[in-house]
Structures are given as structure tokens and as C-alpha cells.
Amino acid sequence: MKFISIVWFRHDLRLEDHPALHAAVARGAVLPVFIWAPEEEAPWPPGSASRWWLHQSLLALETDLKRAGSRLIIRRGPTRQALLGLAKDGRASAVFWNRRYEPAVMARDVKVMESLRSAGLEAESFNGALLHEPWEVQTKSGGPFQVFTPFWKTCLALPAPPKPWPAPRELPAPRKWPVGLPVEALELEPEVNWAGGLRASWKPGRAGARAELKRFLNERLLKYDGVRDFPSRVGTSRLSPHLHFGEISPRQVWHAVRRSATEKAIPEERWPQCRFLAEIGWREFAHHLLHHFPHTPAQPLRSQFAKFPWRDEPVWLRAWQRGLTGFPFVDAGMRELWATGWMHNRVRMVVASFLVKHLLISWLDGARWFWDTLVDADLANNTLGWQWTAGCGADAAPYFRIFNPVSQGKKFDPKAKYIRRWVPELAKLPDRWIHAPWEAPAESLARAGVTLGENYPKPIVKHLIARETALEAYRKVKGQPHPDPWTSSSPALRA
Predict the structure, then answer these.
(1) What is 265-327 written as a DSSP string?
(2) What digits encode the pLDDT tens for the residues 7-20?
């Protein structure tokens, strides 16, 4: 009898460049398995938008497996019992999977591996999600990095990521298939149909990921550095949800970008693509930090911020969540998030800064909202991004750097195309007034059909007052005066 191996699919919903699958195929027959056990990921089980995406991605994986002569066996947790039961039912002697790095998941996986090996099964995990393992990148003293630039330089000095493996054309099948559940039994899609905007905006699955990468390489890559900050233009890769769910690997993206540059005969020192590859580096940095500082999803990395005087303002929080703050650039971003499950990186920075510095509402409240509403919600990226904005994390923006939501809108949405799309009640306002409608003359508001406080809210705070209040809170936490200048030069917030 040929050896049978379970491949436990998780955030690696693809067949290409899949180390665990590669190991199983080399050994014999393959039993592809997915186990739904969200309670084991507490306190960060998948949010609503992530569950919607997962449903579509599992359906896509089922199709890919069927084409390869295989099938996906789905069961509910607990994971340890499910895997042991599947090994017995499927007569498997090994279980392979690709690693995840969330603290709760890593702790669970250690126990699962111990149980499998105690039961006489071969159990092994692989790196299928990162260019380099978090423990492979170290400072000269052997510790973890907390600043991105030296971290990324060290990564670039390591051996280049190996080329990705192609998908197996055919997967050897076991003689007996264990019983599984249909995807629909997991009840991942919402009972109330709020996901229409997500369906219109995304194509989850391996095919969708490959199509998005192809569009980016052909249409956006060479212009990436010049247009990436302008939300009215499709200038970013839009690969983040595909990377999070493992529908495409970072090695595939890395080598595709390098290959594209070579084909275009662009000298490496002139590559605009280097900026995009650095964005892959920020993803690596986020996972590096999460691994070495596993407390940070709930606590600030900089301990002095644990006593920051955050406000409990549910009315303001709700206004921010719904895009009703009275600041059009902020509101446009929050409405894009609600409609599509995604938000442009530049706008993520602005809306996050507004929450923690204009409203003095905790970054944790923002992180939880992003976690539930983003299709690319990733614990490592979400934690890094929010702590960066709040000034309490690694390589963080100083707290006294406070984004002005009006000037940010004027700079990165000068014709207000983004605002007009997502805040249509302001669409008829002239460019001069649309970024700060409270400054518009009464006749301009009337001609545009805008009545502040009725069909569009008045600002819930005043920028200058909110800024000084935030700086005063910062002074108390730091116990020292703050520098006066504030700027907006910073990496994008990555949720």
C-alpha cells in the first residue's frame, strides 16, 4: 500500500509553491483537508469580511483540486481530534502543513504536532507564507529587529528566496475518501446579504490572485512609485487579501516582479519596482515583530503607552466607523472599507491617525474594526499598522506627527475624485470647498445641495483643538515637551 499523507490547508489555499503539498506528493497519496476551528484562534478569530473571503476561496480550492483529480475534505474542530480522526478514517500515516505565525495558532500547532507524533504519525510543518522565517533574520547581537530599514537590508543580504514550485498536474488519490462537510455547512457567508460590494470588487481564489498579479505587472508596476499614494487611481497591487489567504505566495510575487524587470531590461538601480518589493518587506517585518513580541496585538510595544488616556466615546467611534465624521477624506475611506472590504493604504493612515489622534480613541478599537471589515485582515499587518500610527509600536511614527485630514485630501485627492465617489452627497461642491465643506460659503453649499448637519455632518471635532489635546496627552505620557513640527512622510499603514 502506498503511503497516504494529510495536507492540512490553512492560510495557503493554493496548489502552486506549496511546500507541505510538495512533501506529501513526494511521499505518496494526498488527502487534502481543511478544518474549521475559529475558537482556537481567540481572541482574534476570523472577522466577518475574512469569513466571506474564506468561503469563496475554499470553493475555488475545491475546483482546483478537482481538476487535479483530488478533493477537499472539510471538517469542524477541535483540530487535534479532527486530524487524528481523519488519519484513522483515511489510513494516513503523516500530516503536513505550512506554518502560521499568530500566537494562539502557533501555540495550538505545537500541541497538535505533539499529539500527532504521540499517536505514531509523522508530522511536519513548512514555511509557505514568508520569504524568511522570523527567527532567521537577526540583529548583529542575535536579537529581533524593531526598525524596518536595517531589517530589510539584512533580509536582502540573505540568500535569495528559492524559485516557487509549479502546481502538481495530478494529485495521487487515496483508495478511500473520508466523509467531509460541504463549504456551506461552515456558515461563513453572512445571513444578511451585505457582501454585494465585496463580490463586485474581488475574485477570491488562486485564479483571482494570478489575474491580479498579471494586471499589476502589466499596468501598474512601472508607475507604482508615482501613483501608489493617490486613492482615486488603481495604482497598488491589491494582492494583500490573496497573500493573506495564501492564494499566492510571496515567493511567487517576488520572482514575478524580478522577472518582469529583467524582461523590460531595466537596470536594477533604477527599478521603481524596488519600492514595491519593500512593501513585501514590510509584510515580512510585521510577521517578524508578531513572532518576537506576541503580546502586541493587545498591548503596545512601547510600554509607556499602556497608560495613555484614551477616550471612551462610542458616538464618535460609531461616526468614524460609518464615515460620518464630517471630514470628507476620512469619510470616503471608511465608506470604501464598508462597501468593498478594503481601503487604500494612504487613506488607511489618515483614518487611523484621525481615530487615535483627533478623537483620542484607542488604536485597539480601530484594530478590531479593521479586523472585522477588511478582507485582508492579517494579525501581523494589522498590529504593526495601528501601533505605527498610534506611535506605540516598532519603527513607529512619533505621536506628535498628526495627519491633517484636509491637507492630506488636498494633496492626494486634489480633484476630489475619490471623495466624490464615496461621499456622493458632496459631489457637486467645487474642488476649492469639497475637502472642508464647513468653510464653504452658504451659496456654494446651497448650489451643491449640501446642508451641513442634515445631509452631511458637521465636523465632530476641530482639527487644531484636537491636535493640541492629543499633544497634551502625549506630553503627559512622555513627561516631556513635544517638538512642534509635524510631517506626513511615513510608510503606509498595513492592515
Answers:
(1) T--GGG-THHHHHHHHHHHHHHHHHHHH-TTTTTS-SSGGGGG---B--HHHHHHHHHT-SS-
(2) 999 999 999 999 99
